[in-house]
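Reading a protein record of the kind used here takes only a little practice. The record below shows the convention in full.

——
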Amino acid sequence: MTLMKVDALDYQSRILTWDQMRAQAAKLREAGMKVVFTNGAFDILHLGHLTYMTFAREQGDCLIVGLNSDASVRRYKGDKRPIVPQEERATMLASLRCVDYVVLFDQDEPKDLIAHILPDILIKGEDWAHYVSGRDVVEANGGKVILAKMVEGRSTTNVIKKIVEAYAK
């Protein structure tokens, strides 16, 4: 088996600015497509992330992933995170079949980005059922919020813990 070389430049056209994403989402909706949005840090990609994003993509025609910037991740997960820098996280997400576009945000929550894009469907993990940032914006514009089931035991925190336990002396 020959391994294919991954060229990060292949995916750069799928990592957009806020204004580029707003324009693209508008074009997609004009074409009758359902635009789905989800967000997260997606630090150290794992099966839980992939399962979650695949589910999100199945809910519509186009999946936009709002990615927390490094500064945003540090503010809510602490100074040791993220493990993987935002440029690499964005490129890995953009390379996934289930992800159509990636857009970075620096705020603590994605509500402003959601209001800027106005997706038809907002996906969040069921662990966030108590508070879904942007729910009010999406629902006020005729969209809906769907809570995704989580993959038991799969989290970046668990991956980091396992690495530390395996290699700490």
